[in-house]
Amino acid sequence: MEQVMKRKGEYVIPHEAIPEVMSRITLSSEDNVVCLERTEPMFTTYWATAGEISPFFLAVMKEKKIIGARCPKCKMIICPPYMTRCPVCQKDDKSLVDLEIGIELPQVGYMLGTPPITVFANARFARYAPFGRGRVILGDSQSALPIQVFTTTGFLKPGIFKRGTEVKIVFRKNRMGFSTDYFAVSMEEVPEKLRPKSGLEETDLKWQSLKLATPKVTAEAQKGFPKILEAVRKFVGEIPKSPRAQRDLTNWDRKILVKTGGGKFGMVVAKQKIKLAKDTEMKKPDLTLVMEDPAHLGKWTNGDSLVNMIRMGFMAISNLQEMETIFKFDRLHRSIRRDAEERGKK
């Protein structure tokens, strides 16, 4: 009876601040009557000051600068300026020395440690995955700046950032006064002529996530391709038998072009199903998935993770904003297996 439906909408309040809205057709527990249930988000909008770090965010928004605070006595510098008095130095009257706010810091620094990478994000942050968050030391600051890290080369993989990696601060084109207004990229990914630039914006860099190399066609891959294609067809054919798998694809409509070293084909996600199609039918795909060895698709039908394959470089994706589609695909095997196990127990 239960049928879960999800709906996206445009809101005055940012979408990421609103819990996922769903509805379902079910039976009321009181009188066993068919009814429609809906999730109803409750939230309160209020104004809150950024406190002592307001000058920091104002400098980011208006001037594309990173500022800190400095003690005029011991010359200690902190960034961001999360306090207004030196914790060590005192005035003659024994009160703490006021820090000088507004000390501009260089926009090149190094990672204090290896930033963790979030690949499997929760529902609220799924559309931002994969993302990393670490801490950067700028100039003579004795504190580290919390910051997100990104790569211009596509999927954020381990090894791009580690302790000591030199990074460049990059600013969002549209800044709202949040810590996401700026981020760090590896200095190796910044063209030499842009490295000294202050206030570097994301649009100044070339992001390569939409560029995919054509897979190398091999005779071995072509020979095994029909068998892999049949395995995928059989796997997606199990979805209509699995209520859980169908829920994974609820209200999710996508056209996916798959390119391998053995051949091409399309996958159409619609009406809680996945149908295979000819690659010529994928005129304007929402997503392109590229790999040299089609055997990786066979591993996916047996439970291996597409996300991990992308993370390890065995596959490439045309649009990182479509990672949520990949997350859904990775859930299918577990959903099909669980429903099959329950059917076997009956």
Report on this model:
It is a single chain. By secondary structure, the chain is of the alpha+beta class. The protein folds into 3 domains: 3-38, no CATH class; 52-208, no CATH class; 219-345, 2-Layer Sandwich (Nonspecific Lipid-transfer Protein, Chain A). It is 20% helix and 26% strand. The radius of gyration is 25 Å and the shape is globular. The chain starts with a strand and ends with a helix. The mean pLDDT is 87.
- Order the strands across the largest sheet as they lie in space: 9-11-12-14-13
**Number of H- or I-type helical stretches:** 6
Question: What pattern of helices and strands is seen along the backbone?
Answer: EEEHEEEEEEEEEEEHHEEEEHHEH
Name the overall outline. globular
Number of strands: 19
Strand-residue proportion: 25-35%
Q: Pick out the low-confidence regions.
A: none
Radius of gyration: 25 Å
Q: How is the main sheet built?
A: 5 strands, mixed, barrel
Mean pLDDT: 87
